[in-house]
């Protein structure tokens, strides 16, 4: 996508947070888009990945070696901080409450997943509204489609990985089918877009 098109998508927006969801193939996709963001990045990035129980701390360790951002596992009642990459803990749903504070719960799985992307994105949309950027990457089920739609309805920016590029295209395709996203991009352009979310644009 041309730089001018990315500029147009961001024009006049001010962002407070980024929410990213992924499943099968998501680790490799994240490794493509997150390195290069500076430690001074002005936004928190919250990632929900479908992982096996007990694997979440490994993700934190893996990404601490690859990104400049501070990397943490999201903890109950912690406030979101700029320049920090948060991973939802395994086997807990992760929500964001008013004031930008994490909340963990043990409600039943959604789309067979806990954490569920939908729960995180829907709660983040309620808190950040137009100031949220939601990104849905590769994955093998429908989790995240409703969450990304909620971000769009709240006025946030919605981005889906180009299905033809995704390791598993089910999740991106379902998101596109459910509600047309603002942008459908390959990973190289998602990486460029994230780097541009540095406050007010235009």
UniProtKB/TrEMBL annotation:
A GO term from the CC aspect: cytoplasm
Active site residues per record: 23, 50, 143
Sorted UniProt keywords: Chemotaxis, Hydrolase
MF terms (GO), sorted A to Z: phosphorelay response regulator activity; protein-glutamate methylesterase activity
UniProt keyword Hydrolase present: yes
InterPro entries, per database record: CheB_C, Sig_transdc_resp-reg_Me-estase
GO biological process: chemotaxis
Entry keyword annotation includes Hydrolase: yes
Superkingdom of source: Bacteria
The reaction(s) this protein catalyses: [protein]-L-glutamate 5-O-methyl ester + H2O = L-glutamyl-[protein] + methanol + H(+)
Residue ranges occupied by any CheB-type methylesterase domain in the UniProt entry: 18-190
Enzyme class, first EC level, given as a word: hydrolase
EC number: 3.1.1.61
The protein's name in its UniProt record: protein-glutamate methylesterase
Species this protein is from: Pseudoduganella lurida
């Amino acid at each position: 996508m041309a730089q001018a098109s990315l500029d147009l998508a961001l024009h006049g927006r001010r962002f407070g947070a980024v929410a990213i969801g992924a499943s099968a193939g998501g680790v490799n996709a994240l490794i493509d888009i997150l390195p290069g963001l500076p430690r001074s990045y002005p936004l928190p990035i919250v990632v929900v990945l479908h992982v096996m129980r007990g694997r979440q701390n490994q993700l934190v360790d893996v990404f601490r070696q690859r990104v400049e951002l501070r990397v943490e596992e999201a903890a109950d009642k912690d406030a979101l901080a700029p320049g920090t990459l948060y991973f939802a803990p395994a086997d807990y749903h992760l929500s964001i409450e008013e004031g930008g504070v994490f909340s963990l719960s043990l409600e039943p799985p959604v789309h067979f997943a806990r954490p569920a992307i939908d729960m995180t994105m829907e709660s983040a949309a309620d808190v950040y509204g137009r100031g949220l950027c939601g990104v849905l990457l590769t994955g093998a089920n429908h989790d995240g489609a409703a969450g990304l739609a909620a971000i769009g309805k709240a006025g946030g920016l919605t981005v889906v990985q180009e299905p033809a590029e995704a390791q598993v295209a089910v999740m991106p395709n379902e998101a596109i089918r459910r509600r047309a996203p603002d942008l459908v991009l390959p990973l190289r352009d998602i990486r460029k877009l994230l780097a541009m979310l540095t406050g007010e644009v235009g």
